[in-house]
Records
---
Amino acid sequence: MRPKVTMIAWNQNDNYVVTAVNNHLLKVWNSSTGQLLHYLVGHADEVFVLETHPFDSRIMLSAGHDGNIFIWDVTKGTKTKHYFNMIEGQGHGAVFDCKFSPDGQHFACTDSHGHLLIFGFGCSRPYEKIPDQMFFHTDYRPLIRDSNNYVLDEQTQQAPHLMPPPFLVDVDGNPHPTKYQRLVPGRENSADEHLIPQLGYVATSDGEVVEQVIGQQTVNQDEQGMEPSILDGMIRQLQLQQDQRNAAADQEPTSSGLQNGEGTPRRG
């Protein structure tokens, strides 16, 4: 097999270059001379994640489709720490991306099963307050196109960008408590009664009927006490002006423009 480079990254001070090769090896190079310094052995599948530490030039993170996450000392060519993303009952989960926090004390990864993995120093109790499953209720909802070929949400017949902020639900579509709904941008200052979604019964692909979020509250934002969106207000205002111009054009005789000596009608 001819080796191919799948990923490349410089360390924090650019003295070293690390390359991931499709034979599952990582190679550390001197960035000035091009000399091969170290082989980093440990991965059993292709690596597509190489992340350098934000301020420690010795540290490099690698993660791959084998579910392994390694912390390396690239100056010595040694392994500092190893994690394996084992998912109970499903085998390992391929790691697709990783990023360090700005202080270098934590890093977060996402895997092929939709999990967010957070590693670092300290206590994990603050993270336990967040539900295990968090989705927007509009995720995976079908879209349609209208007669003008514009995209609309099939259920509400609204343009997706004009819809109210979505609700947070679990994997079965059941809404989370109101304290989590305030985590959604646009719902931070809403009253509790406006954070309760409308529920309905929906048939799944297996024929099972489950209770799910089917729509938003129909109360206007002003009535909810929410801060109105500036963009939405501009869009509504422009639409109103266009409707008024169209109505005026329909009522005005077609020859009025010529009688006034104007070649084209004036824009409002």
---
Amino acid sequence: ESDTASEISFQLNKHKKTPSIGSHSSDMASVSSVSGSVLSVYSGDFGSVDAQGTVEFALDYDEKNREFQVHVSQCKDLAVVDEKKGRSDPYVKTYLLPDKARMGKRKTSVKKRTVNPIYNEVLRYKIEKMVLLIQKLNLSVWHNDPLGRNSFLGEIEIDLASWDWSNRKLNWYPLKPRSLSAVNGVDHRGVMSLSIKYVPPGSLGPKNPPSGEVHIWVKDVKDLLQLRPSGVDSFVKCYVLPDTSKKSYQKTRVIKRDTNPVFNHTIVYDGFHTEDLKDACVELTVWDHEKLTNHFLGGIRLGLGTGLSYGISVDWMDSTQEEVAFWQEMMLAANEWIEGLLPLRSL
């Protein structure tokens, strides 16, 4: 059940406009040689720290410059990520939701070896006030790791429509666990934590990689539906649509009796051209495993959500606004891991 990393190829027949995935599932050693030491990057649990501590910040809107300003002052009593060394290297990140891709993220500098970092930095957004008032501010704190194994330390989410804009003072706010506010509706199925990255051909050196690669790192899922008193035996399936053949299919190992399973499973798809990203869709679905049949628990689809794939109308190109924003951010940030926390839904 050593199922940490796998790789398949995504190759397109340009004449027929349909994908043909000639593929193989590789062991960790071969993936490591192809895509930059996958084994060292993806093994281990990189997000299991409990949120704690507080953050001090202030919000302001500069009417003259039409600029939203987040004054990030400091944090106190953050969780320790590296227990052996007793250290965390924290930074603060902000998003305006739900339109993450258009507004982009803002980040402070990283403060090393401290759980009480002082920033005194201003994160700025050029945005009209009337547009700002229909957004939410998501401010989160992360531990920075040089290999990209960043750990979530806590967050706070603010509805800007109800914010008191006369309050420009710095105030302290408790950091909370990952928010489920986006999925507290009737169809609540859980939340998937993942990262994705696109590596363009030749971006790491001459002919390295020889073709574009999409890396999908399924970290964990929180708050799955509990179908039995003992919990749920879950696993994740992955396809790159429109190909639904067995060669496209990849899956994680089964995590037993846990409604909050940690997978830390990575899949590398090569054979991607940059133009293919607008027509392909990564479908990730979570299933409960039983001997006779598997039960669908929820899923996400990462793509542009245009309803079209290679000029053909398809019903699976139906990504939500959040999923589209996540995919667009990956397309705009080559060779950079994009972190996401997406609600599972019916497909």
